[in-house]
Amino acid sequence: MNLVTPDFGLIFWQTLTFLVVLFVLKKFAWQKILDTIKSREESIKEALESAKKARLAIDQLKSNNEILIKEANLERDRILKDAMSIKKSIIDNARIEAEKVKDKTISDSKMIINREKDSAVSFLKNYTVNFSLQIAEKLLKRELKSDKSQKDLINSLINNK
Fold first, then answer.
1. What string of H, E and C letters represents the secondary structure of 27-81?
2. Region for residue 7 given its phi and psi (left: phi exceeds 0; alpha: psi -120 to 50; beta: otherwise)
3. How much is the pLDDT for 41?
4. Cβ atoms 10, 2 nearer than 8 A
5. From CA 114, how far away is CA 121, in angstroms rounded?
6. Kind and range of the H or E element at 9?
7. What per-residue confidence (pLDDT) applies to 3?
8. Rounded to an integer, what distance in angstroms lies between the CA atom of residue 143 and that of residue 137?
């Protein structure tokens, strides 16, 4: 049972050794250990604070990015709307110009057709008149070959007036 119950001498020397080690540690190492622990604690606090600041900065950047994305989307929508209105106006202007060209072409074509028609009618009238005159001339020449027929024609014309 000697192992379980220590003697007075053993307790005395262990206590004395412990106090000497404690005194030496306190005299030479205790302050350095506390300073090291304190500096480590401060560096951990600084690291945590900088991490919080970084997290806040990242959150702010995310919100700024979301705002920029929303603004970019609004700008894109505005540009697309403007482009669509410009496209519509260009198409409308092209349609109006095409209508003008079509109307002018139809008007010019009608004018040319009327001119050609008038020219053809005039040509046919002249041709018919000339043809009629030639027929009348041939008929008169045949009918008025004799002097008697000439006198009869003159008398009938005088009597009709």
1. HHHHHHHHHHHHHHHHHHHHHHHHHHHHHHHHHHHHHHHHHHHHHHHHHHHHHHH
2. beta
3. 95
4. no
5. 10
6. helix 8-24
7. 65
8. 10
**Contact, 122 vs 116, CB < 8 A?**
no
**Torsions phi, psi of 3, nearest 5?**
-75, -30
Structure-token pair, residue 1: 């049972």
DSSP 7: -
pLDDT average, residue stretch 145-155: 76
For residue range 21-42, what is the model confidence (pLDDT) as tens digits?
A: 999 988 888 888 889 999 999 9
Please check the confidence at residue 150 and state whether its pLDDT lies above 60: yes
- Residues 100 and 94: their CA atoms lie apart, in Å, by 10
- pLDDT exceeds 70 at position 1: no
Q: Token pair for residue 21?
A: 């080690």
Residue 80, CA atoms < 13 Å, CB-side half-sphere:
6
Question: What type of residue sits at position 98?
Answer: A
Encoding tokens for residue 135?
Answer: 């027929």
Q: Are 108 and 102 in contact (CB under 8 A)?
A: no
